[in-house]
Amino acid sequence: MAQLTMIQAINQALAQALDQDPAVIVFGEDVGKNGGVFRATDQLQARFGEQRVVDTPLSESAIIGSAIGLAVNGMKPVAEIQFMGFLYPAMDQLASQASRLRFRSAGRYALPLVVRAPFGGGVRTPELHADSLEALFTHTPGLKVVIPSSAYDAKGLLLQAIDDPDPVLFAEPMKLYRAIKEEVPEAPYRIPLGQARVVREGRDATVLTWGAPVWLVHKLAGQLQQERGISLEVIDLRSLIPLDEETIMHSVSKTGRALVVHEAVKTGGFGAELASRIMEKVFLYLHAPVMRVTGYDTPYPVPQVEDEWLPHEERILQAVHELLDY
Amino acid sequence: MGICEAGLVQVLNEDGRVVGEQPQNLSDAQLKDLYRRMQWARLFDQRAVRLQRQGRIGTYAPLEGQEAAQVGSSYVLEKGDWLFPTYRDLAACFNFGLSYTSALLYTMGHLEGGRLEEGYNLFPISIMIATQLPQAVGAAWASKLKQDGRVALVYFGDGATSKGDFHEALNLASVLKAPVVFFCQNNQWAISVPLSKQTGHTVIADKAQGYGLPGVRVDGNDVLAVCQVAKEAVERARRGEGPTLIEALTYRLGPHTTADDPTRYRPAEELEQWKQQRDPLRRFRLFLEREGLWSEHEEEQSAAEFKTVMDEALKKAEQTPRSQLHQAFDYVYTNPPQDLLRQKEEVLSWTQRKGSVSWHN
Ligand SMILES: Cc1ncc(C[n+]2csc(CCOP(=O)(O)OP(=O)(O)O)c2C)c(N)n1
């Protein structure tokens, strides 16, 4: 089995999807000759030709809008939006159009389209490149929102997303693209959407997270176990819609404590959704309120202060401390 | 692509010889000033790229090759006019009052890097493509309503012409007869996508027709031609006759940004041709030397002067204290909600505790 980075795993998944199904078409800005600004589509145009791996004009709304038309007419579009913040100009097509086509057509049209978009902080990008906008899309009925945190998951989830008959936003944490190498099987495989991954089992509290913070939380959980005998259960949600409520509620009712860690701003973030679901479902098991460590309610800040703005080690430790001592 | 094709306004040819209408309105001192601004823009750019390589500033978008387009067009503005730049338009911004220190702080990822000089109507640099076009129309519209005689000049690239905002802005400006000048620097590449994949047409200036406004195509590496064309468009706007679309045909000699590798997508011969034969500085310098207005001595003296100014600006930027996260909270709302102020307090208390308590010890 080969050791791959996340970006290599994504590249392999795209190649296999293109290879297996002539309906798959990959397109977006700079995805062709340049192979994508992160090289996710490296060599794909050389291998599959300009009809299947297409450099589009600089037109996010046209990219998503045309993906809708492609999908209703028998293709399986996999569109790349260069950075998640650039979904704003395509908001109309994605949030008000793609998401509700099935509803509008009373089930006549399914929309098997995937929108890939890098996002997330700690990479020192210019403005609007790092923003975590997942809550905008979980608040949009009709879309699925998938966020891998490992190379293995990225490949399996992406292949599954491409198979899925509904529109999927596949949000890729930029910081993890090259940060880790993992064993990734060469043969295509699929990971069902809506199954969280228990990264680490524990007794004392449950940490719910996704994307880049998964690794930070996992590391901290190891330290806490070693240094203080605290046992955290760490859950990578992997997809927010569909949400694996069963795994979450099972874990929280076992530990009695829940902490949500996400990079997106706090107010109206998906952490708020998780907290209220936990309240609805397992309130009587709780020994402490559900807590959150998130980005602050400012626009994503400039490079000089982003490390402090993002959920960092000390903030997470403090929250675990408060949760356990409540 | 022939650079002398029909419809392209040119004053100087590639050897710096006058082929168009000789500019009447520029004095010798102004001609020298124009050149010096282009030279300084290039020197700043080259220095910035080196600073990025040394890790002293962050990602930077080089403007080398586009000096004439930016300097020539911004030169004709008056102080109270409006300028809407992108990340690649620092030469225009400098002309318009942006300090080198501010530009450096911006690329250093400093919170204050976004603060522009008071008294200049310079809009923050646009990172999102084409968003600034409708915004410039709005500023121009306000000037029209206020009858203050101001004009808005908005910069964008060829890639931006694919965005809905470009089309919506041209359409709205035309309907309103807004005093705005749309200035496209067609450097022929949008990261790795060449013009032929950006639009099915070859002439961006022609797009004006569909919206009922004049479109002008100018040799963007000919500073005198750019100056001329921009001046006419600005005067037209000021007279209340409405918007103009200018397409300045130019070329980006460097990478898209310091994080980009243009050898992956751009033919080396194309680059060489533009570098050797169409350099905007070379062309204008040849002209000035022939007119007896510039010499090797002046070139060196001016470069030395720039170095002093730049060293000073860099020193100032590097001595500026690093941004603190708590400052970010002051820029979110004019009147921040209580909840945000509580978050600011939390950040401040983290700053105070830093180093003293580490809970996991
Ligand atoms: C809405 C949006 N989409 C994509 C990007 C990513 N991006 C940054 S610059 C660029 C190319 C822009 O080309 P052009 O408009 O020709 O300007 P140039 O960079 O050549 O000056 C792209 C695709 C962005 N910043 N904003």
From TrEMBL, chain A:
Q: Where would I find the Transketolase-like pyrimidine-binding domain in this sequence?
A: 4-179
Per the UniProt record, one Pfam family is Transket_pyr
Under Gene3D superfamilies, the record lists: 3.40.50.920, 3.40.50.970
InterPro entries cross-referenced by the UniProt entry:
THDP-binding, Transketo_C/PFOR_II, Transketolase-like_Pyr-bd, Transketolase_C
Per the UniProt record, which EC number(s) apply here? 1.2.4.1
Coiled-coil stretches noted in the UniProt entry, renumbered to this chain: none
| Cofactor needs | thiamine diphosphate
The GO terms describing molecular function are: pyruvate dehydrogenase (acetyl-transferring) activity
Listed A to Z, the keywords are: Oxidoreductase, Pyruvate, Thiamine pyrophosphate
Mind telling me which residue stretches traverse the membrane in this protein? none
Identify the SMART domains for this entry: Transket_pyr
Which PANTHER family has this protein been placed in?
PYRUVATE DEHYDROGENASE E1 COMPONENT BETA SUBUNIT, PYRUVATE DEHYDROGENASE E1 COMPONENT SUBUNIT BETA
Q: What is the official name of this protein in its record?
A: Pyruvate dehydrogenase E1 component beta subunit
Q: Which organism is it from?
A: Caldalkalibacillus uzonensis
UniProtKB/TrEMBL annotation, chain B:
Which reactions fall under this protein's catalytic activity? N(6)-[(R)-lipoyl]-L-lysyl-[protein] + pyruvate + H(+) = N(6)-[(R)-S(8)-acetyldihydrolipoyl]-L-lysyl-[protein] + CO2
Q: Where is the Dehydrogenase E1 component domain?
A: 35-323
Q: Which cofactor does it need?
A: thiamine diphosphate
Ordered alphabetically, the record's keywords are: Oxidoreductase, Pyruvate, Thiamine pyrophosphate
EC numbers for this chain: 1.2.4.1
GO MF annotation: an example: pyruvate dehydrogenase (acetyl-transferring) activity
The record ties this protein, via InterPro entries, to: Alpha-ketoacid_DH_E1_comp, DH_E1, PdhA/BkdA, THDP-binding
Any matching Pfam family? E1_dh
Task: Please name the CDD domains in this protein's record.
Answer: TPP_E1_PDC_ADC_BCADC
Write out the function statement from the record.
Answer: The pyruvate dehydrogenase complex catalyzes the overall conversion of pyruvate to acetyl-CoA and CO(2). It contains multiple copies of three enzymatic components: pyruvate dehydrogenase (E1), dihydrolipoamide acetyltransferase (E2) and lipoamide dehydrogenase (E3).
NCBIfam families the record matches? PDH_E1_alph_x (TIGR03181)
Q: How does it assemble?
A: Heterodimer of an alpha and a beta chain.
**Know the name of this protein?**
Pyruvate dehydrogenase E1 component subunit alpha
| Organism of origin | Caldalkalibacillus uzonensis
